[in-house]
Amino acid sequence: MSTTVDQAGRSLADPKTYLDEERLHAALSLLRRESPVHLVEAPDYNPFWAITRHADIMEIERDHALWINEPRPLLAAAEFDRLQEEQRAMGMALSTLIHMDDPHHRVVRAIGADWFRPKAMRALQPRIDELAHRYVDRLAELGGECDFVQQVAVHYPLYVILSLLGLPESDFPRMLKLTQELFGGQDEELQRGTTAEEQMAALFDFFNYFNAVTAARRAEPTDDLASAIANARVDGEYLSDVDVASYYVIIATAGHDTTSSTISGGLHALIEHPDQLTRLKENPDLLPLATDEMIRWVTPVKEFMRTATRDTQVGGVPIAKGESVLLSYPSANRDEDIFDDPFRFDIGRDPNRHLAFGFGVHYCLGAALARMEIRSLYTALLPRLESIELAGTPEWTATTFVGGLKHLPIRYTLT
Predict the structure, then answer these.
(1) pLDDT score of 196
(2) Tell me: the pLDDT tens digits for 226-267?
(3) pTM across the whole model
């Protein structure tokens, strides 16, 4: 039975769509072709417009005065939207950089920006290289067969970002579990519970943990990102408790989960395309291009949303003030109008105008760090990799927001 455009649109509100990449991209290709600005009315969700073409997403991302993040920065069920609105009214809602608009966004973003600038990244390079070699050694110790996601990929970028924050290594397993519960709230294996209240509990655990971090860093400032956030002042005042905790949450979660998804998805792509693996091993200078191709291929952030501040049009379709649009990044990154043969995994793709990091004022703060981590791991891995194959069936996370592979069983030989 063929899929209709309405069914394709509704599939974007179904976390299980992202378990099957073939199904996902078939739906997105249909929408790009027949209804690139499509009104979605899905059960349990407030209506939204699905935006699937690269050019339309770029147009929206460029105009952050017309298209704002609040009050609906990401796709969630109507019940969750309602709960967030109640918490916002009480001053208790999550308020990360992805929830904010200028001018507040610009001021708050600047607090952490210096930690991700090129100079800071150059200083961090030796430590990242050291960690990359440590985790390739760990791969060797596992004896030739492992679940690459759970035993290697989730730990390496987690260690990097939490070290940058200055958190104790003993807390890393707790941060990993909370991240998986927060981003895996729609996945039966990872979720804490099925109700909005149960899923919000993971967020409150984050808040409680980071409130204690804030108190400690204000009492005794240290030379780490956590201290910079805790002691930042705007107009002479500390950030609110919610803003501080939210800042920590976005750094501590998105700062590693998206990177581990790309590392895992990139390895899966190389296994599935052995000609590209051979090409990369023989031409290591292609690694910077290969890194961006992995990022495009995986696109770990599936969507963000924006709300119109006035009546407007996208792609000739009228959108009223107050209506929300969903920016489908996996769709933009397979757009036939932008990418030559977009469904080909090409480690030498150049140019590569992917939107996996977003665009404009909300461009990912940690993009340079993510690229550095991916390059470092593959720089350490590829010279030692003699053979690799799947040792089971890969499994993806059920999500409509952030995710990728959650299990990648592999069999391999390393020197």
Answers:
(1) 67
(2) 999 999 999 999 998 888 988 988 888 877 889 999 999 999
(3) 0.94
Task: Go through the chain and tell me how many residues it has.
Answer: 415
R_g of the chain, CA atoms, integer Å: 21
Lowest-confidence pick of 64-73, 161-170, 391-400: 161-170
Are 370 and 259 contacting, i.e. CB atoms less than 8 angstroms apart?
yes
- pLDDT score at 189: 79
Scan for tokens 């003993």, then name that residue: 170
Structure tokens at 244: 């501080």
User: Could you tell me the CA-to-CA distances from 308 to 39, 44, 75, 151, 325 in Å, in that order?
Assistant: 14, 22, 15, 43, 8
CATH number at residue 230: 1.10.630.10
Cα–Cα distance for residue pair 366/357, rounded to 1 Å = 9
**Beta pairing partners, 194:** none
Say if CB 103 and CB 216 are below 8 A apart.
no
Domains in the chain, number: 1
**8 A C-beta contact, residue 366 and residue 150:** no
Instruction: Kindly report the average pLDDT of the chain as a whole number.
Output: 93
Residue-number span of the structural domain to which 277 is assigned: 5-414
Contact 138, 152 (CB under 8 A): yes
Amino acid at 2: S
Q: What is the DSSP string of 260-273?
A: HHHHHHHHHHHHH-
